[in-house]
Structure prediction request, 453 residues.
Amino acid sequence: MQHSGDTTPGRGLQFMTANPTLNGAPIRFTTPLPLGLTSMVQQDPPITGRHYITTIYDTLTMLRGNHSFKVGGAYRLTDWHDTSFSGPGGLLGSPAYAIGSVAGDPAVNLFTASTLPGVQSTDLSVANNLYALLTGRLSRVQTGRVVDPGTLQYAITNFENWTSSKMGGFYGQDTWRVKPSFTLNYGLRWELATAPYNNLGIAVFPDYANLLGPSTALFQPGVLNGVADPVMRRGKVASKSDLVNPAPNIGFAWTPNVEHGFLGRLIGHNNKSVIRGGFARNYYDEGTNFFSSIPGSNPGQQQSLDLRPGVAPGFSPGGLTLQSPLPPFVPFPLAYTDTFRQADFTFSNGFGTMKDRLRMPYVQSWNIGIQREIGTKTVVEARYLGNRGSNVWRTYSLNEVNIFENGFLQEFKNAQQNLAINTANGRTGFANNGLPGQAPLPIFEAVSTSTRR
Prediction:
């Protein structure tokens, strides 16, 4: 049994008491402050981290005549558990104040080219920023809440990012010494893996159909027969387990002994050469990072509490300063639910998920080589090695540039052709209207160069 990992101890909320307070909460300023000032108030709390990998394995070896059998199995648990007290705007329950003047603030009219004749335009912004700093004018106040796993409601509580993955397998193999000059190794390993998962079941992610939305496949412009109103749902696992993963391996070592002829001189006798070769398939798991950083990081687990002029009632441009009591925050989302409409987040966030039938990635490797003794202390070796990865996980954006189905590539080639025609005609010496000394006219074929998205 092997257990390894690290623990980052948290310091609780002791650091909060060291900061000055405003409206009953530690005061924080978004950085940078006006005029390039740096905030001396700690912005974010420490994270308590517990990251472990536990492996349990056992192997039994049996010697029977010219065979050496091995059977065994292994189980591995990867556990990534971070706890923090941060969310939208930084520290939960501690609003972050942005100092500055926004459009519509009457203070903006105090410093203009009319009120300060001859002032440089760059100095006008400096004057406005300085005035906002001295008077404590606010352009935004932001804080947030996170989902409480116990109540499934937004609250000021620890935010837990707890992702795990499990993988195991069993195997059998044999080393068979067929004869003194030839040894054969062969075996089979069977790997099983569960999908990475959120332990608390509070992650929010779409399935693949909802991720594609109205479309049903990538790069099919105009084909809108998918999910018209895509959603994300609360869940624990974004993909299915993968339990059928055979991993064969075979190898050999042969010591040929040829006494006569050219082959005898090339290979040598008296065990001077060894030929080795083999093939193997090896599976591996991606651990917890893939789930944690993609489907586990979608919006919905955190609630933003925001105050902005023109958005929050009671917060007009220039109408709020550090001395003002804060009006009610505008929450988004309004509540934590089992289902979120993606349209509610379209203009502020992106979404990620995993295909529901992700297979375990594996690498196939093969080799063949020969060793030849050419002296009492010298060996020459030649070897060929090859490998190939399959089912390798990767991420890609549904918004990647499409140059094939939408015709952009062909239009680009048309534009290249037009440039080549123009350049070729320009080198022939023809002049406009046949007049010497004039620049050549660009000559184009009747080819469309429009682009379509």
About this structure: Confidence is low (pLDDT under 50) at residues 11-17, 429-453. The two ends are 56 Å apart (CA to CA).
